[in-house]
Each structure stands twice: as C-alpha cells, then as structure tokens.
Amino acid sequence: MMKSRKGDVFEGETVDQLAQRMIDHLLKWRSLDAFCDKQLLTILEKTEFTLKPLPAMLQVEHPITIFGDIHGQLDALIRYFDAVGYPPKVQFLFLGDYVDRGGKSLEVSLLLFCYKIRYPHVVHLLRGNHECMKMNRLYGFHEEMARKRGTAMWRRYQYVFNELPLCARVGQRILCMHGGISQNCTSWESFRALKKPNTPKTCDEGLQVDLMWADPTQDKCNAFAINSQRAISVIFGEQALTEFMRKLGLSLIVRAHEVSQDGFNFMFNRKIVTVFSAPYYCGNDTNCGAIMHVSPSYEISFTVLRPRMIATPENAEVVKQMENNYQALMAASPDPNRGRHLNPVPVSPSQLPQPSLQPVEIKK
Ligand SMILES: [Mn+2]
C-alpha cells in the first residue's frame, strides 16, 4: 500500500477531474502541497498513457502558439497564459526543457501534463535535452524532487519523458524542435522512421540527439561541425540549414535551447528562429522571455515577457541593465503607448526594431 502524504483523495473522482482540480489549484496557489504522492503518480501514469501512441514527429495545424524553454518558472508560464489565453482557448506547442534551473519544475511539468490529459489535441509537448535523465539528475530537478516528493517519483518521471515526441511540423512549411537539425536526415522518411528514444544511450545518438541538442552557428561553419561547447551533437551553418530546408520543402525552423536577450532571435535571413520563454534565466541573466504565435495565414508575432526584479541597492546595476535592454528592444516602436507597457508586452511585427517580419512564404 502506498502511503498518502497529504491531501484528499476523493472517492470516485476520475483522472480527468483530478487533472482539472490540479490545474485550478496550481493556477490559484502555485503549489501542489495539497495533493498526495498517489495523486501525482496517477497524473504521471495517465500522461504516459496519453503520450505513448504519439509518433516521434507530430503533425499540428495553425493557428498555434509556441513556447521555448520554461525551466521550472511557473510564474512566467502563468503570466504568458494570462496574456494570451489558457488552454483550450489557444492551441499550444511546447518545445521542451520544462524542468531544471528554476525552482518549480515539479509544478510546471505537472501543470502541462494535466493540460495534456484534459486537452490532448490542443496542448502538444515535445522533449528537450533536459527531459533526459543525465541532465535532470544534475541541473536541479532531481534535487527538487528529493526535497519535495522523493527520488522514486523522479525516477518515475523518466518513463513519461521517454514518451515525449521530438519534433512537430506545423502545417507543411514549419518544423519545430528543441535543439536543431541533423545531417542524419535526408527526407521526411527519416522522421517517419524515427523512434522515441527510451534509454540514455539512444537519447545520445542518431537524428534524435540533434533534434534535442544541436545549435545554429554564425561562425564560419557552413556545414555541420562538432558541437564542442556542449560536448554533444552538432552545430550547423546557413548552408547546411538551407540544404536541409530545401530537401524537406520548409520555410521556417522554430527551435529553443539557447537563451536570447529579447526572448527570440532570427538567424540566416529569417530561416530559423530561436524562442526562449524563461525570462531572467538562472536568476542572473537579464534576458526577456518570449512565445511565438503563428496566425492562420502563417504570420509570425511574439509576446515578450520582461524579467521581473525588485530593485535594491545591491542589484541596482542589474536592474538598470535590464531596463536598458528593454528600452532598446522597444526603441523603434511606433506605438505611442510604449511607455505604458504592462507586463507582458505583446509585440506585433511592426513594433520590432528590425524591418517588419514577413509572413512565412507559403508555396502551394
Ligand atoms: Mn535545452
């Protein structure tokens, strides 16, 4: 018999009802203290069951809103939902890295899992490199679970992570993943043949390791090269990316995995964009976070979240730097209201400091 730590087990409550109650509670109290281990394990089991039949590559349609790394920042996640709407009002795709770094990996992952259970066709979850045991053993999640619920539940999580898909195609022309592209891919057939890796070894090889780990580079690297900074996977330059996209008939690659000052960052003539949703990353980066919207006509826009920080004499410099960064991001804005921006700030293409974003080109 499993021991209940805390909380009520309602007799006759379905898993769906439990998931909804957990969502409501998390949004209100930002904590799971009122739920016992058995209830959390019930959600993990149902999540695994829901994910299991999904292929390694998802097909989703737009309009859709895309999240990059969240890294245990529950407050930021809820601020985005407050700004753009909650599931199932909006369709969401999450590019992974739910856990580690931030302090609420348990709450973030369970909130997303509960949404996946409640709205499996509206909430789509991909796997990031931190949803691999060798990462989340070391970068915060294991320690957090040991403190909050015990390491047995941390181990149970890994079976759920193993069932997360690795990439998603939005319509026919946008491909999304956590890390990047791979030289182990020559056609859509490679994606259809791809299996979700379920051991540490298979996570670290083939197409899957690059989908979770690869990075684009501005260095004089046109093809693929060893990713020496991460000591795993590859970096790729514009030529490698262009060739990959031409073969697959793609117009845009959307990926996460790297912190970005503005929360998002285009490269290579807007063929690839990095979306990073964790503002004030690791508590010492002054970055904004952002999420990306794809409209029904493939127009791209972003909602940017400023990092929040209370100014004290000790951190005055950091706060000032954050303000400057944010002013720079908004500098070219024609919006007369820009001085009155609330958090978070929806940024339409015309407000961006660079020339306006072109809708992704769609060839029929
Ligand atoms: Mn990552």
UniProtKB/TrEMBL annotation:
UniProt keyword annotations, A-Z: Hydrolase
E.C. code: 3.1.3.16
Biased composition (Low complexity): 344-364
GO molecular function: protein serine/threonine phosphatase activity
SMART domains, A to Z: PP2Ac (SM00156)
Catalytic activity: O-phospho-L-threonyl-[protein] + H2O = L-threonyl-[protein] + phosphate
Major enzyme class: hydrolase
Homology family: Belongs to the PPP phosphatase family.
PANTHER family per the UniProt record, alphabetical: SERINE/THREONINE PROTEIN PHOSPHATASE, SERINE_THREONINE-PROTEIN PHOSPHATASE-RELATED
Protein name: Serine/threonine-protein phosphatase
Organism: Caenorhabditis brenneri (Nematode worm)
